[in-house]
Automatic annotation (TrEMBL):
SUPFAM superfamilies: Dimeric alpha+beta barrel
Pfam families: AsnC_trans_reg
Domain Transcription regulator AsnC/Lrp ligand binding: 6-73
Protein name: Transcriptional regulator AsnC family
Taxonomic lineage: Archaea, Nitrososphaerota, environmental samples
InterPro entries xrefs: Dimeric_a/b-barrel, Tscrpt_reg_AsnC/Lrp_C
Length: 79
């Protein structure tokens, strides 16, 4: 199972809208608003790493009001 954690910066005041949009994406397992340098933390899982890349690039990063993301890919066997 491939997994990634995505740290997200969004426009001020748009956190709830972005969280709602993220929850509608297949493969998103968790979404949390956060304090600090990033506004939102999302966890995504898939059976294939390529599916993660596609979802992150073409679905998550295209959500209106997301300004930037930082993706942390999990290392299989180290969980």
């Amino acid at each position: 199972m491939a997994e990634a954690y995505i740290l997200i910066n969004c426009e001020i005041g748009s956190e709830e809208d972005v969280i709602t949009a993220l929850k509608a994406i297949d493969g998103i397992k968790e979404v949390h608003g956060t304090f600090g340098a990033y506004d939102i933390l999302a966890k995504i899982e898939s059976s294939q790493v390529e599916d993660l890349r596609e979802t992150i690039t073409w679905k998550i990063r295209k959500i209106d009001k997301i300004r930037s993301t930082l993706t942390l890919m999990g290392i299989e066997g180290q969980s």
